[in-house]
Design brief:
44% of the residues lie in helices and 15% in strands. It contains 4 helices and 6 strands, in the order αααββββββα. It has helices at 7-30, 40-132, 143-148, 246-249; strands at residues 156-168, 182-183, 188-193, 197-212, 228-230, 237-240. Helix 1 runs antiparallel to helix 2.
Length: 286
């Protein structure tokens, strides 16, 4: 887009500059017609100069039109060449990606199915062992939970202190804005609402505890539950975890079914189509 200009573009720019100057020169010459009317020789010389200037403007305008047409043709040619190069590159990339889909996709699918199969088998073994553990023995965690879950964390107190705060004298409820209360003495105080109502307050002790709250366990779904894998060398689904249970996944075959090498027989059909318009016979013709 910002590359160097072509030779045609340079010539077009120069021609535009020249035609602008030629138009100014022709207009200047045309303005001298009245002064040239004094005698025939002067007028003839003026007409010759005017015609030359006018012809030069016409020449330059035609040159600009020709260069513009040539530039458009060149741009069209360049655009077509760029599109052809883009098509060739896309075709090459698509062919390479098709091979990667078939080869790398199939390999990754086998590896992933082997992983979820082993995880499912380990989960079954972990569940079986946990059922045999004596009371009080911490249960084993299966690999899926270790990798993707999070155990519960109990509350942990960090700091505790006693605060002496203002409360309503009538019901002991805490005053939200402690600075609003004016102390009468060490244990009593009050504040005024809307310059009319006085709220009497007293001091009350509170225990303030800073802590980390309880964090509940995050138990992930089975590793295979959300896995859905296509067949990478043909259409169809190779594995859909939503349709399996753990026992089935633990016995999963990692390798997909082999693709038939022989080409499928194409069906053969027959159609009938009229070869000429239908002409209805009149009763008399029968």
């Amino acid at each position: 887009m910002f590359g160097r200009k072509s030779e045609n573009a340079k010539r077009l720019d120069a021609a535009k500059i020249d035609v602008a100057a030629a138009r100014v020169r022709a207009a200047t010459i045309a303005a001298g017609e009245e002064a040239a009317l004094e005698n025939a020789a002067t007028y003839a010389a003026w007409r010759t100069e005017r015609d030359t200037a006018t012809a030069d403007v016409e020449r330059l305008e035609k040159l600009i039109a020709a260069l513009t047409a040539g530039g458009e043709a060149q741009r069209q040619h360049d655009a077509e060449e760029a599109l052809r190069r883009r098509i060739d590159l896309a075709r090459k990339n698509n062919a390479a990606l098709a091979e990667r889909i078939k080869i790398e996709g199939s390999r990754l699918s086998v590896e992933l199915k082997a992983l979820i199969r082993d995880a499912a088998a380990a989960t079954l073994e972990t569940d079986a062992i946990n059922k045999l553990l004596p009371d009080g023995t911490p249960p084993l965690l299966d690999p899926n939970f270790i990798a993707r879950g999070r155990p519960a964390v109990p509350r942990k107190d960090l700091e505790e202190k006693v605060l002496n705060l203002w409360v309503r004298e009538t019901d002991g409820s805490l005053i939200g804005d402690q600075d609003r209360v004016t102390a009468v003495d060490a244990d009593t105080g009050n504040f005024v609402v809307d310059k009319q109502f006085r709220v009497d307050c007293v001091r009350r002790k509170f225990r303030s505890t800073t802590y980390h709250p309880v964090e509940y366990a995050e138990i992930p779904e089975h590793l295979f539950a959300n896995v859905r894998l296509p067949l990478f060398d043909r259409q169809g689904v190779d594995f859909d975890g939503a349709r399996f249970i753990t026992e089935h996944v633990a016995m999963l075959e990692a390798e997909p079914a082999k693709l038939e090498k022989k080409a499928a027989r194409r069906p053969t059909q027959t159609e009938l189509a009229p070869v000429e318009p239908y002409r209805r016979l009149e009763p008399d013709a029968a």
